[in-house]
Design brief:
Blueprint (H helix, E strand, L loop, with lengths): L1 E3 L5 H13 L5 E5 L6 H5 L3 E4 L8 H4 L5 E4 L8 H15 L3 E7 L10 H14 L3 E6 L3 H5 L2 H7 L1 E4 L6 E2 L3 H12 L7 E5 L4 E2 L1 H12 L4 E4 L2 H10 L4 H15 L9 H6 L6 H9 L2
Parallel strand pairs: 1-2, 1-4, 2-3, 4-5, 5-6, 6-9, 7-11
Antiparallel strand pairs: 8-10
Helix pairs in contact: 1-8, 4-5, 9-13, 10-11
């Protein structure tokens, strides 16, 4: 049996859809805080079980019968280590034979604020002795296209990445890789540094926004604190605004760049071109 945590999230849903192309629905378990959010998957034959990272006493029962688990990192930055620890402990009790975990690109060396909890989780997995794979995901192209409408409206794309190159891929690419690893035969601990085939600067991204929208968009590099404040003013919660600003400045030093092409090898095709994802976002 295969299980996916955080299954109602943007990545989790894409993983479920890909799994349904690979294995029978009755071999898939979707683990989610609110099962009602996955009524459509239940209707397709997927087993949906309640699974709350913050209710550790209930987790091992929810993992009963699971052989291979995809642990999608929690969205609650600052609480991830404790939540992931609870899942790993429960997996050990339940006899889960393999865990794939969605970490961050170059987690062992990344200066990004986000990397700390991922490193801690990777250490917990190693300590658990459960065979596992570390899916060190790079930046999603959608992380950038989410702000496309605002950039087009104001004619400026803000950031603090300088000329740093960012190797993004579509969220669906990472989901396909996760499903491939989850349904694979390997139980050997492995590390996968995953990123898009083509890298770009935010200046190039702004130019692509101009081309796609027909409206001039320029990239403006601003100090990290100012960028975080701007994000917060736009409605991004303060702590997450700081995380995004930190990631942006990290990309100036190459933290979001990778040219190993491991992601495209895993999915057996080139990663989705970032310009294609951008155009789709602009035309929505």
């Amino acid at each position: 049996m295969y299980a996916v945590t955080g299954a109602s999230g943007a990545l989790g849903r894409l993983v479920l859809n890909t799994l349904l192309e690979k294995v029978a629905a009755d071999r898939i378990v979707a683990l989610v805080r609110d099962p009602a959010k996955l009524a459509d998957m239940a209707a397709r034959g997927v087993t949906v079980r309640p699974f709350d990272y913050n209710a550790p006493e209930s987790l091992s029962a929810a993992l009963n019968g699971i052989d291979r688990l995809l642990l999608i990192s929690s969205s609650e930055v600052g609480q991830r280590e404790a939540q992931h620890c609870a899942v790993i402990d429960a997996a050990k009790v339940a006899g889960v034979k393999f865990i794939a975990y969605t970490s961050i690109l170059n987690a062992d060396s990344s200066p990004a604020m986000l990397a700390g909890e991922h490193r801690a989780t990777e250490a917990l997995l190693k300590k658990s002795a459960i065979p596992h794979a570390l899916l060190r995901n790079g930046w999603y192209t959608e992380n950038l296209t989410a702000g496309a409408a605002s950039a087009i409206e104001h004619g400026v794309l803000l950031g603090n990445s300088g000329e740093g190159r960012i190797s993004t891929a579509a969220r669906a690419d990472y989901a396909e890789a996760a499903a491939t690893i989850l349904t694979g035969a390997s139980d050997t601990a492995q590390v996968y540094e995953l990123a898009g085939d083509e890298a770009f600067t935010l200046g190039e991204f702004a130019a692509a926004l101009t081309s796609a929208s027909g409206k001039l968009v320029v990239y403006k590099d601003i100090p990290e604190p100012d960028y975080a404040a701007t994000l917060e003013q736009a409605g991004v919660p303060g702590p997450f605004a700081k995380v995004l600003a930190d990631s942006s400045v990290g990309s100036a030093g190459g933290a979001l760049f990778d040219d190993g092409h491991m992601l495209s090898r895993l999915v057996g095709r080139p990663t989705t071109p970032w310009r294609e994802t951008l155009k789709e976002a602009v035309n929505e």
